[in-house]
Design goal:
single chain, five-stranded antiparallel beta sheet
Length: about 170
């Protein structure tokens, strides 16, 4: 269970701060069931209420600062996704995003970056799907690292570039 003040990853909402843990004050709901009240860090004017025992959405603590530093140091060694069937590419992208796993997000970004570079080299345009999923992965990864490293989200890419020789840019 998480505590008030904790920063967690909450599915596609990304980093959220827990502002309350307790029963909902709504008639008809059990007073025994506990809910988190979450404020997304990068979605304005939003508040989320979710059961403490919610297993349908990924909920995990954000990395600590030490974990984030070690993670960034290890980015170069992270590989790419293995997409076997072209027809299933977008589904693979979607599953990577839904994992909310920073390592998988980097794998996805490296996979898409390689594909975008190859398309541009062949004189082709970047696909809308590639651009969309790259952006979603980048937002999720950089959002978590920003909180963990106590940086503005816009400065995370520069931090990574300074600390990793070959990163996705």
């Amino acid at each position: 269970m998480f505590d008030v003040g904790d920063y967690i990853i909450y599915g596609s909402n990304g980093v959220c701060k827990i502002t309350n843990v307790g029963p909902m004050k709504v008639s008809g709901l059990s007073k025994d069931k506990l809910y988190y009240t979450l404020i997304p860090c990068y979605i304005r004017d939003s508040e989320i209420f979710t059961p403490v025992d919610n297993e349908r959405v990924v909920m995990r603590k954000v990395m600590t600062k030490d974990e984030a530093v070690r993670f960034v140091d290890g980015i170069k060694a992270i590989g790419k996704l293995k997409i076997i069937e072209e027809k299933k590419r977008e589904n693979e992208y979607r599953q990577a995003i839904l994992s909310c796993d920073p390592k998988v997000l980097v794998e996805l970004m490296k996979t898409i970056k390689e594909r975008m570079d190859a398309r541009l080299a062949d004189g082709k345009k970047i696909t809308a799907s590639d651009a969309k999923y790259f952006h979603i992965a980048e937002e999720g990864l950089f959002g978590e690292l920003a909180i963990s490293l106590k940086l503005e989200k816009e400065k995370v890419k520069d931090y990574i570039k300074q600390n990793v020789e070959a990163f996705i840019s």
